[in-house]
Amino acid sequence: MKKIRAYDIFGNIALVKFPKEFKIVDKKKFATKLMKTNSSVKTVLEKSGKFKGRLRKMQTKYVLGEKNKEALYRENSCVFRFNVDTTYFSSRLSNERKEIAFKIKKKDKVFVMFAGVSPFSIVIAKNSKCENIFSNELNREANKYGQLNIDLNRVGRKVKLLPGDIKKVALKLKQKFDVIVMPRPQLKDSFLKEAFKLSKKGTRIFYYDFCKIEDKQQIIDKIKAEAKIAKKRIKVTKIKHAGDIAPYKVRLRVDFRVL
What we know:
By secondary structure, the protein is an alpha/beta fold. The chain has helices at about 25-35, 95-105, 120-125, 140-150, 165-170, 190-195, 215-230, and strands spanning about 5-10, 15, 45, 60-65, 70-75, 80-85, 110, 130-135, 160, 180, 205-210, 235-245, 250-259. The longest helix has 14 residues, at about 25-35. It is globular, with a radius of gyration of 19 Å.
């Protein structure tokens, strides 16, 4: 029988991807052991599929413990509530959020795309001296939790939700930003057109994409091509593997500045 190599713990909830041959008795046996070794875990759920679409929703199945799908999760001196089925959250981006927060300068104006329940926005607000942060998300349920998390972390003075489709939001906004954070889902559209519309000379952009390890130059070329279309000059300042998502496939972070 295959071993379970990875699972996610969101505070009180553990989310496990079981091998296909696992029977319900095997799943409950593993869940019991998991709850014994992690006292904070009160619910074990089975990951029953991949994140789907731009809203990144995922279905889970109850395995053991309390029948609950609302997580209470802590990281980087922040606390977050979210529903694991109706919103997207990645605990594996915890270090990324902290690293980005430490790159934010005093009085920076920040725009976060694909904000979800606002973890990037809130971690930045709590760990930097930025002036303000606009947190954009399409998913209405995620925005509800986003506002709840803003209130829970007492960062309402800095963080403002800007709900809706980024394509429409970018057209309406007159403001330009010092920093744009783009933790994109796996979608065909790069949304760089919108990022460049919200940028100005000196804007730093943190762009996330997914690719095979050997294809990272294609991501760089795509960014440069989009910049050329937007009539922007850019300088790539850093390329980072921000996590493995499959064998030989990585989440790539490209940091660049508008010149």
